[in-house]
Write a structure and sequence with these properties.
- The protein is mainly β.
- The protein contains one helix and ten strands, in the order H-E-E-E-E-E-E-E-E-E-E.
- The protein has one helix at residues 10-14, and strands at 33-36, 39-43, 48-59, 62-73, 79-94, 100-111, 116-127, 130-140, 146-148, 158-160.
- Strands 1, 2, 3, 4, 5, 6, 7, 8, 9 and 10 form a ten-stranded antiparallel β-sheet that branches.
């Protein structure tokens, strides 16, 4: 099952990782990417890099922790898909407003081509304290549109909205 690994420049593959680009703080793109894992397998013919065992990725405010991370890229070495799996796979990142976005699920897929983040099984997404939990959460990272739920009638979707502070006025009360 393992293919023969040949010496390649891992920086080429790492520079392709700009996940969740619309949500990300702009400064994250300029930060170095650090990945630690117990194992790395590069399948150059298939345009795939596979990281296994206690995978930790850090780029600026982005943090990914998973048991397995699979990165797919095209012939031009552009990121096309990331697959994170684990018990539970997790990510967190700051947006441009410095609001924390966190997600976790047994499987998290990110398609750069479709600007689509999908969290499956035991899924939870927290955006600045507003939390969605379901067995399936789909997020368009360009429009920030969120869909949750699916066809399993025994699994309910839950949403918790954090109270917003009331706008204060500079006028004194009468």
């Amino acid at each position: 099952p393992y293919t023969k690994m040949k010496k390649v420049n891992p920086v080429v593959y790492l520079l392709l990782l700009l996940p969740f680009h619309c949500w990300a703080a702009d400064s994250d793109r300029d930060q170095p990417i650090n990945i630690e894992a117990d194992q790395l397998e590069i399948r150059e013919q298939e345009n795939v890099s596979i990281y296994r065992g206690n995978v930790q990725l850090v780029q600026g405010s982005l943090r990914i922790n998973s048991d397995r991370l699979v990165i797919h890229f095209n012939e031009d070495n552009e990121l096309t898909m990331m697959e994170m799996t684990g018990n539970l796979a997790k990510f967190q990142q700051l947006d441009n407003a410095q609001q924390l976005i966190r997600g976790e699920a047994e499987q998290i897929d990110y398609s750069d081509l479709d600007s689509l983040l999908i969290l499956r099984r035991k899924a939870s997404l927290d955006q600045a304290g507003d939390v969605v939990t379901s067995h399936l959460i789909r997020v368009n990272t360009t429009t920030s549109a969120i869909e949750a739920g699916g066809t399993q009638s025994d699994v309910r979707t839950t949403v918790v909205f954090k109270p917003r502070k009331a706008a204060t006025s500079d006028k004194p009360e009468p």
